[in-house]
Amino acid sequence: MKPGGNVFPRKLDRLLPLATKAEDLWIQDEHGNRYLDASGGPLVVSLGHGRKEIATAVYDQILNCDYTHPTMFTTSAVEDLARSLAAHSPPGIDRFYFMSGGAEAVETAIKMARQIHLENGRPRRFQLISRWHSYHGLTLGALAAAGRTAFRSPFAPMLKDVCHIPAPYCLRCSFGLHYPDCKLKCALALEEAIENLGPETVSAFIAETISGATLAAVPPPPGYFKKIREICDHYQVLLILDEVLCGLGRTGRWFAAEHYSVTPDLITMGKGLGGGAIAISAVGVLGRHFDAICSGSGSFVHGGTFSHHNVAAAAANAVIRIIEEENLIDRVHRHGKIIGEKLNRALSDHPHVADIRGKGFLWGIEFVKDKTTLDPYPRKEKIAERIWKSLFDHGVLAYSAAGFAGSDGDAIIYGPPYTISDDQIDFIVDALAQSLDEVSGSI
Ligand SMILES: Cc1ncc(COP(=O)(O)O)c(C=O)c1O
């Protein structure tokens, strides 16, 4: 099927409906069909669509001071945003470098880590360690870090060598172990990787605090990040937590790192920072690392035309104000539990549901062919895609994940805007139960 027009669309296997309106939690197409956005697109629309406060902030900023080159000026919008983020970030993270997309933030963090080592007289440190089943974006540097095989394969010869260790995915433990008897072997794998690479060569370890898009919302087991932090400290390896998806309130805390009392050296954020209305991402870094760059070479060798963008910063300031004024972190924390309870009540006994996991407003539901053996459906059945499509036909927009159990594995992710109502939660839970019955009953 060849789509018409001149757009090179994201999907070439189907014609995309024409969206004509997005308001609150609803998207409407040209035929008047309405869809409840239960994943905020790819977990990005955190405050609902069409927020006037963000639009006004953007409008005012454009009229007042739209673009100034970030090497020539700073503005109140950018300074205010950094100050707010410092107040909400893990302790000691008090400097923020702004970019546009999540992959850019990841690449910025990887480069920043390297330069921090250079400033500290450790020029041999350049290697990066990450995890399988991770997602860090699709630009070449971020993709090299990411551990999603299907996205990596076509470009594998072009990817920089990054060492991947197993993800903390207890349901399908790479070591065939069970928590807590495993003694967190998946965390200890970091130490082994550092030793194998040569500790004096390793720059950083990057991990999603809660595995998001690829594994479908898997929180780490207790003690995982404590162990990771100890290993990083021991080997002077910098810890980059990628919170592009799980930051900015998504899990019921400003940053998911708070759940695990872990302070990274660098933290990435994006998506919800602009509420989906505008592209903005950031890297937060510990003040002492910033100081090392300041008193060392005196500049971070990085940049971009749209870095530190005033209009994007104004939008993000409006987003943060809404989260604060509407007490949304607390709401996500409380209502997240309700979503979890409702999903469990409706689905946990289903013969094809293996796991319901998540935190706050980030939930993954994993489907299997056989619940007792956890055998997944063969990928060619495209179960996740079929459930996604059935939900779409019921007027519910979700996010699908696949290929995390070997090359099989199917899941649906729910990550609604923080303002979803109780009735809407019931609606999306009921729709999923119905779609699952329809799809699993038809195989
Ligand atoms: C954890 C994580 N990092 C990075 C990215 C890349 O962000 P973007 O799509 O804005 O480049 C994503 C996107 O889903 C993500 O989930």
Condensed summary:
This protein has 443 residues and is an alpha/beta fold. The chain has 13 helices and 15 strands. Pyridoxal-5'-phosphate is lined by residues 42, 101-103, 106, 135-137, 208, 212-213, 242, 244-245, 270.
Q: Give the termini distance in whole angstroms.
A: 26 Å
Ligand species: pyridoxal-5'-phosphate
Using the coordinates shown, work out and report the CATH topology of the largest domain.
Answer: Aspartate Aminotransferase, domain 2
* N to C succession of SSEs: EEEHHHEHEHHEHEHEEEHHHEEHEEEH
Major sheet summary line = 7 strands, mixed
Q: Radius of gyration from the CA trace?
A: 21 Å
How many domains is the backbone divided into?
A: 2
Q: Name the beta content range.
A: 15-25%
- Overall geometry comes to globular
CATH class of the largest domain: Alpha Beta
